[in-house]
Write a structure and sequence with these properties.
heterotetramer, A: alpha+beta, Sufe protein. Chain: A, 7 helices, globular, B: alpha/beta, Aspartate Aminotransferase, domain 1, Aspartate Aminotransferase, domain 2, 14 helices, 15% strand, binds pyridoxal-5'-phosphate
C-alpha cells in the first residue's frame, strides 16, 4: 500500500534532500537516467586517500528516487570508496524502508546506487585501465 | 447513461475487467493509449486457431494449412476495408507501429533520402517516429526538421508552408507525423497537411497508432502515402502491426526483412522476390495473432467507429472537466474535448507522476506516468514526465470518479 | 511401445490431435519442421495473460503491468537457461528465426562487412539464411561462398579449412549455417566447425530453427557467437523468435528496430540508446506470445530434451525404414538415422510432391511438399521439389503406417 | 477427394502434354513460377493479325499445373489474342474439371493462365507503351 511507501521519512528526504547540489572540481562526476520514467541522477564525489570526503547528488524525479539518493549520500559519506562495492540493492531498500516495491519502482529506488557504482568503477578504471576486467560487473545493481 | 453504445454490455465481453487486484480492488484500466484490453472473441479466436488449424501458411496443401491461409488472408482484406485501401496487397503485417515505421525508413528511406535532404516531423512525435528518421539522417547526411506545437497543443500550418516553400528547394523528401498525439491528445488535420505536402509532391507517413483505434480511417480520403498502426491498441493481440503503403510507392520499395516466404526464386548468386505484399513479410508470420486481429476488427465494426468516437468524446469531456476541478493541476493539450482523442495528460503540483501512479494503484487505477516515449515534447513542455489517463469503449464515468478520488488521496498524502 | 516418453499421454495435451477433418479423418500431422502443434498449457497461458494481466510492459507502475513485466523477463531468463547462455541480456526477442538473422545481417553485417569480404554459408541453407547475406554482399561489394554438401548430405570439413585458410587472407568475416538441415535432416558438427572458424577469429552464426527444438542446446559448449531460432517450431506460439548474441559482440552492435522502449533519452538531434537487451527490442513487444513461449519451454524441460531426441531417433529409424520399402523412391540425406533430426525428404518416381501431398490429405496426413525454402539445395540435388515428413514428440508409429498406406495409394492413382 | 482431382483426363494431359515445347522466334515468350511450390511455366506464342497461330508451353511441376497448361493451350489455339482477356479463372477450372480445389492447389491450376495473361499484356504494351494504364490490371488472375 502506498501509505507504507510514502511515510514521513521518504517525504522528508524528498522535500528536504540532504547533500543536494554540485561539488566544484569533483574527483568523480557521473550521471544516468532511468529509461522507464526519465528520472535523472548525477553524483559528484570528492575522494581523498580512498575515503569519500564529500558527496553531492543532483537530479529530478519521483519521491522514491530522490529520497533514496539523499539517503544513499548519507550512508556512504566519509566511508572508504570501496564500501560502495559491498552495498547491495537490499541494503539500500532496507535503509529507505522499502522492501516490497514492485519491479518498476525498484528501479527508481536503485537508480542512485547504480550511478554511484558506475562512478566508482569509472574512478578505478581511469586510474588503472587494466582493472576493467575485474571491475566490469561491479556496476551491476539488478 | 450511455446513449451511443451500451458500455455495460460491452464490459461483459472483457474478462480482465472483472479482475480483482491484490487488495481485492477491481481494476480500473485507464492506460488504453499504451495498450487496450481484449474481448473474449479475440482471445477465443487465437485459442481456436491453435486448437483446430494451427499450421504454417501459404506453402502447404493440406486442409488445416489451407484453412489457416484463408483466415490470414481474410484478415488482410478486412483491414483493407477497415481503412478503405484500394488493394489488399497494400496491407503489410508487421510486429507493431514501430516496425512499420522502421520498414519505411529502411526500405523507402535508404533508397530515397540523400545528403542534404530534409525529413519533416513534429515536436510531439512518439520516439518510434523520431529515432528511425534521426538515424537515417545521421547515416545519409540529411536533417530532421520539427514542426512546433503551440501552447494549446496545435500545429501552425503556416510553419509547414514555410518549411516546404520555395526556399526549401525540394529538399524535403517526406513528412512523417502522428495523426493523434499520445500526450497532448490533439487530433491533427491530417487531410490538410497531406494536401499541402502533395502540392510539393512530398509523400506523407501517418503514424496512426493513436488515431486508427479511435476514429474512422480512410486512406483514400486523407490521401496518406503510408499509414502505420498496432493491433494491440485496438482490441487486438500483441505482436501485430500494420503498414499500409500506396501501391504505386510500394511497387518501388525494396524488401526489408529477407528470407523465407518473401521470395519467388533463390539462386546462389541472386534472388527473385515474391509478389506484393508477400515480398515484405519474411519468415513465418505471426499467424495466430493476425487471425486474432480479425476478430478485433469485427468487434469494432459491429460497434461502429463513429460510435466509438462519440463515446470517447462524451467521456473525454467528463474527464477533462473533472481533472480541471483538481487543486493546482496543469493539463496539457487542447481545451476543447472535440479537438482531442480519448486521453488527458496532466501534472499535479508537487507530486511526481510516478508517485501519483503508485498511489493510484492502491485504488486499482491503472494510468501511465512518465515521458510517454515523447521526450522531445517533454523538453518543449519543460517537464520530465506527466500523468496520462486514456480511455476506450469500455470505460465509464464511474471509473473516472474513482480516478478523481484517488488523485485527491494522492494530494492528501503529499500534503501539498 | 514408447519407452522414453509416454507419447499417448503427451498426445492428450494437444487438442488439435483430436481434430476431425472434412471427411471425418483424424489429423496425422507430419509437418513439424514447418511448425509444431501447441499443448493446452501454452494456449492457456496466452489466454490467461489476456484475461488477467494484459498490459504494456517495462514502463508502467501499476500491478498488472508489473505482473506482465515479470513474466516477460522470466521468459528471457528461462531461455537463457534452456540454451545455457551466460547472461539474460544475451537473449533478444524477435518475430522469428528470419528476423533474428536479419537483425545480425543489418546490425552486425553493415558495420563489419566491407568490399572484398566473404561470407561463408552452405548449400543447404534455408532462404532465411541466404537472402539477407546475399543482399548485404550485393550492397557492400562482398561475396557469398557456399560450402558444398556431398551426395549423402554431409559437409566436408576440409572444404571449410580450404576456404578460410591462408589464401583467404582474412577476407572471410562470418560463417552462418544451420545446425540441422530442414531438407536433408542432417545434423552438422557445429562445435567442430566453430572451433575451426574461431582459430581464424571468424564468428559463427548458427541457424537453430531445426536443431534447438529437437536436441539439447548449449551455446557455451558449442561456442557459437549467434544463435537464431523460432518459438513456433518448438511448441510455442507464432510471432516469437530468439536471437542469442555473445555479450562481447552484442555490446558492439548497433540497434536495429528503432523507437520506443529501446531508448534511454531522445532529443531533437540525438538519441541515447537503452541498456542491453532492450536496445534491440523496439516498440511494444509480442508480450502475450513471449509469455506463452515460457509455457512451451516448461513443457519441453519437463520431458527433457534428451528424451525428445531419443524418441525422434527411434521414430526416424522407423520412418526411414518404411519409406525405403516403397517402390521407386529416392531418399535425400544421411542413410543413418543417428546422423539425422526427425525428418525424411523423398521423391516417388513419376509423382510430383505436390500431387502426393494432395492425395495424402485425403488420409488426413499433413506433410510438406515443395522446395522447403531451400532452392539452392534443390538446384544441387537437381530437383524442383520433394516431399518431407517431419516428426515431433507426439508422433507415433501408427501415424507413420498411415503415411505409408497413403503413399501406396498415391502410387496406385498415378499407376506408375 | 483426390480421386475427383486425379481423373483420367488430368493424368492423360500430364503424361501426354499437348503443345509442349518451344517455338523458334516466337512473338511472345513469357514465363513465371509459383513461389508456393516452384512450379514453372513458360509459354511461347506466334501471333498473326492478332490471332494465336501457334502456342507452346514448357515447364515442370505437378500434374495439375502441367495438365492445366496443356489444356489451356488447346483452349486458345487459333483464337484471337484478345480472347485471353476474357478467360476467367472459373473458365479454366471448369475446363479442367476442377471446381473445388483448395486455395493452394488453385494457384497450380491457374499458373499457366497467369503466364498467358502476362504475355498478352507484355505484347500490347511493347507495341504501345501508352496502353500500360489500361492493361495494368489485365494480368490479374486471383
Ligand atoms: C533451417 C531453417 N532456418 C530458418 C527457418 C525460418 O524460420 P521462420 O520462418 O520461423 O523465420 C526455418 C523454418 O522454416 C528453417 O527450417
Ligand atoms: C503515437 C504513437 N506512435 C507509435 C507508438 C508505438 O507503438 P508500438 O509500441 O505498438 O510500436 C505509440 C504507442 O505507444 C504511439 O502512441
Amino acid at each position: 500500500m502506498s501509505e507504507d511507501i510514502y511515510r514521513e521519512m521518504i517525504l522528508d528526504h524528498y522535500r528536504n534532500p540532504r547533500n543536494k547540489g554540485k561539488i566544484e572540481e569533483p574527483d568523480i562526476r557521473i550521471n544516468d537516467s532511468n529509461p522507464l520514467c526519465g528520472d535523472e541522477i548525477s553524483i559528484d564525489l570528492k575522494v581523498e586517500n580512498d575515503i569519500i570526503k564529500d558527496i553531492k547528488f543532483d537530479g529530478r524525479g519521483c519521491a522514491i528516487s530522490q529520497a533514496s539518493a539523499s539517503m544513499l549520500t548519507e550512508m556512504v559519506s566519509n566511508k572508504p570508496l570501496t564500501t560502495i562495492k559491498d552495498i547491495t540493492k537490499d541494503d539500500v531498500l532496507e535503509n529507505i524502508g522499502l522492501t516490497n516495491l514492485g519491479p518498476a519502482r525498484i528501479k527508481c529506488a536503485l537508480l542512485s546506487l547504480k550511478v554511484l557504482k558506475l562512478g566508482m568503477v569509472k574512478y578505478y578504471v581511469d586510474k588503472d585501465p587494466s582493472s576493467i576486467e575485474e571491475m566490469k560487473d561491479q556496476s551491476k545493481v539488478f | 447513461m450511455q446513449a451511443l453504445l451500451d458500455v455495460y454490455k460491452i464490459r461483459q465481453d472483457f474478462p480482465i475487467l472483472n479482475r480483482r487486484l491484490n487488495d481485492g480492488k477491481r481494476l480500473v484500466y485507464l492506460d488504453n493509449a499504451a495498450t487496450t484490453q481484449k474481448p473474449n472473441e479475440v482471445i477465443d479466436s487465437i485459442s481456436r486457431y491453435y486448437k483446430e488449424y494451427n499450421s504454417n501458411i501459404h506453402r502447404a496443401v493440406y486442409q488445416i494449412a489451407e484453412e489457416a491461409t484463408e483466415e490470414y488472408e481474410n484478415t488482410r482484406e478486412k483491414i483493407r476495408k477497415f481503412i478503405n485501401a484500394r488493394y489488399p496487397e497494400e496491407i503489410i503485417f508487421t510486429r507493431n507501429t514501430t516496425e512499420s515505421i522502421n520498414l519505411v525508413a529502411y526500405s523507402w528511406g535508404y533508397s530515397n533520402i540523400k545528403k542534404g535532404n530534409k525529413i519533416v516531423l513534429t515536436e510531439y512525435e512518439h520516439h518510434s517516429n523520431i529515432v528511425p528518421w534521426q538515424t537515417l539522417c545521421h547515416n545519409k547526411g540529411a536533417r530532421v526538421k520539427y514542426l512546433e506545437v503551440d501552447a494549446d497543443g496545435y500545429l501552425k500550418l503556416e510553419d509547414l508552408y514555410d518549411l516546404i516553400s520555395q526556399k526549401d528547394d525540394g529538399k524535403t523528401k517526406i513528412i512523417s507525423l502522428s495523426e493523434m498525439s499520445n500526450v497532448l491528445g490533439t487530433i491533427f488535420p491530417a487531410k490538410e497537411i497531406i494536401k499541402i505536402a502533395h502540392e510539393k509532391d512530398i509523400p506523407v507517413l501517418l503514424d496512426g497508432a493513436q488515431s486508427v483505434p479511435h476514429m474512422k480511417t480512410d486512406v483514400q480520403q486523407s490521401g496518406c502515402d503510408f499509414l502505420a498502426f498496432s493491433a494491440h491498441k485496438m482490441l487486438g493481440p500483441t505482436g501485430v502491426g500494420v503498414l499500409y503503403v500506396r501501391k504505386e510507392i510500394l511497387e518501388q520499395m525494396k524488401p526489408f526483412i529477407l528470407g523465407g516466404d518473401m521470395i519467388k526464386e533463390v539462386h546462389k548468386e541472386n534472388t527473385i522476390f515474391n509478389d506484393l505484399p508477400y515480398r515484405f513479410e519474411g519468415g513465418t508470420p505471426n499467424i495466430a495473432d493476425v487471425i486474432g486481429f480479425s476478430a478485433a476488427i469485427d468487434y469494432l465494426n459491429r460497434i461502429g467507429m463513429d460510435n466509438v468516437r462519440e463515446h470517447e468524446l462524451e467521456m473525454t469531456s467528463y474527464l477533462l472537466e473533472r481533472i480541471k476541478g483538481l487543486k493546482s493541476v496543469v493539463i496539457y493539450g487542447p481545451k476543447k474535448a472535440k479537438d482531442r482523442g480519448g486521453l488527458v495528460s496532466f501534472n499535479m503540483d508537487g507530486i511526481h507522476p510516478h508517485d501519483c501512479a503508485t498511489i493510484l494503484n492502491d485504488f486499482g487505477v491503472a494510468i501511465r506516468s512518465g515521458h510517454h516515449c515523447a521526450q522531445v515534447l517533454m523538453e518543449k513542455l519543460d517537464i520530465v514526465a506527466s500523468s496520462r489517463a486514456s480511455l476506450y469503449i469500455y470505460n465509464t464515468k464511474e471509473e473516472i470518479d474513482i480516478l478523481i478520488d484517488a488523485l485527491n488521496h494522492a494530494r492528501r498524502i503529499f500534503n501539498t
